[in-house]
Write a structure and sequence with these properties.
Elements lengths: L1 E5 L2 E5 L11 H8 L5 E10 L8 H10 L5 E9 L9 H11 L7 E3 L7 H10 L4 E5 L13 E5 L7 E6 L11 E6 L5 E7 L5 H11 L3 E2 L23 E4 L15
Parallel strand pairs: 4-5
Antiparallel strand pairs: 1-2, 1-3, 3-4, 6-7, 8-9, 8-12, 9-10, 11-12
């Protein structure tokens, strides 16, 4: 989430530009109280459990209920008056540490470790968190340039069935997102959600061409997917294409091991 501060006025924006200030008034008030006239803050909105580990479901619950009191904004960058983007990450973080010196919850400084990557990762595994992110200490802030940092995940994996796709929107080509499903213990095919990020242009074209002959007119799910979503745009069923997933040679998972 990004926070824009301009002489006391605050806007909180998601990565896609959605204004979520009204859902996070406590965080907006804390940003407005910072000792700066203008600032641009780039951070992570997190739900934090009592044991200090993060929980994505806490964010979902806060979004549904409008109660953001349990959420914390971990700030990674600030931009105030001068161009801090070219500065090394360590220098930017020191500026940020000074800015947040008197700030209390829900604004938190995101600390780091230098030279202890493996032990830090091993400790992250014991906490059952998603993983760690490693950044070059001399790197400037470069939006969209993932080559300057490395995410090392520790995740449980799950297999899903691709049961359809949506039309592309905006500047995206070929297809929008893939629709996923899984088998529940009663052998019903249940909608699981969407997947579409991280697919390059060539792979989008390859997927689209392979999906075209598999299109069917009937939804293969026991119940149609929900049109609403906590994140992203609503699912417009008229723009959804269903497919005969068995033709993709996806094996049906064994009971309890989907």
């Amino acid at each position: 989430m990004h926070a824009r501060l301009d002489r006391g006025a605050v806007r909180l924006l998601t990565r896609t530009g959605f204004d979520c200030t009204h859902k996070n008034r406590g965080i907006a008030a804390a940003v407005a109280a910072l000792p700066a006239r203008q600032a641009y803050l780039d951070g992570e909105l997190c739900g934090v459990r009592p044991d200090s580990t993060t929980s994505f479901s806490l964010i979902q619950n806060a979004s549904d209920t409008g109660n953001s009191g349990a959420l914390v904004f971990f700030l990674l960058l600030h931009l105030d008056g001068e161009a801090t983007v070219p500065m090394p990450v360590t220098e930017r973080k020191e500026r940020l540490r000074a800015l947040l010196s008197d700030a209390g919850s829900p604004l938190h400084f995101s600390d780091h470790q230098i030279g202890r990557g493996r032990p830090f990762y091993d400790h992250a595994r014991t906490l059952k968190v998603e993983g760690i992110v490693s950044k070059r200490v001399d790197a400037p802030y470069a939006p969209g340039n993932r080559g300057l940092w490395l995410k090392v995940k520790y995740l449980n994996r799950e297999g899903f069935v691709v049961i359809g796709w949506t039309d592309p929107e905006g500047a995206r080509h070929w297809l929008g997102v893939l629709l996923l499903a899984y088998y529940d213990p009663d052998d019903r095919l249940v909608y699981a959600g969407r997947a579409g990020t991280g697919i390059d242009y060539a792979e989008l074209e390859r997927l689209w061409r392979r999906l075209q002959p598999l299109a069917i007119s009937e939804m293969p799910l026991d119940q149609p997917p929900s049109r609403d979503s906590r994140f992203g745009s609503p699912l417009t069923l008229s723009r959804v294409h269903c497919q005969h997933y068995r033709d993709l040679e996806l094996q049906k998972p064994h009971s309890g091991k989907r």
